[in-house]
Amino acid sequence: MTPKKPRSPCTTPKSCASTSSASPRPLANDLDLFRRRLLQNPRQVSAIAPSSRTLARAMTLGLGPQSGRVVEFGPGTGRLTEAILARGVPPQNLTLFELDEEFVVHLKSRFPGVTVIQAGAQTAADHVAPGVQTVISGLPLLSMPEAVREGIVAAAFRVLGPRGTYVQFTYGNRPPLPPEVIAALGLRVNKGHKIWANLPPARVFRFRRS
Length: 210
Prior knowledge:
210 residues, Rossmann fold, 7-stranded mixed beta sheet, 21% strand, globular
């Protein structure tokens, strides 16, 4: 007589789902946190969903282990942070600027070794020495007053080295600063292709000194 096989502890779809949810994936945790902060502070979060992995890859294109120091503005739950580290940037070379206290606690827990500063992007030069290679921004610049946008981009270039790059995405087709302001700051901008695999679709812009 053939002995019966021991029954799996996960015998039904419902019980399987319960078992798998005992250790939630970071992605699920991130989304829950994002939604909660969006409901509690919609003006500061100012996005309907975290950046997609496709957008994160486009934003971090060209980064690697030898990329030097990197600064990120407005990391939120850390989708772009994750992509930066996945490119091989050492954690000790990455500094994050985030205003939201819950996001700050989450980022410190999720990314040990990365410097997380609870402060606005405009204060970057108070915390970071010049010579940064890349500043990556997840801030919703187009939803901000023009003077604030200009201040954030100017703050990025106060810490960037002579050949450094400021990377910014927007949900529109135009750069986050008008042409006359870009010229006044002594910058040139490269307009990337549209990232349709994002909610909403986004476009990546790269700013460098002229």
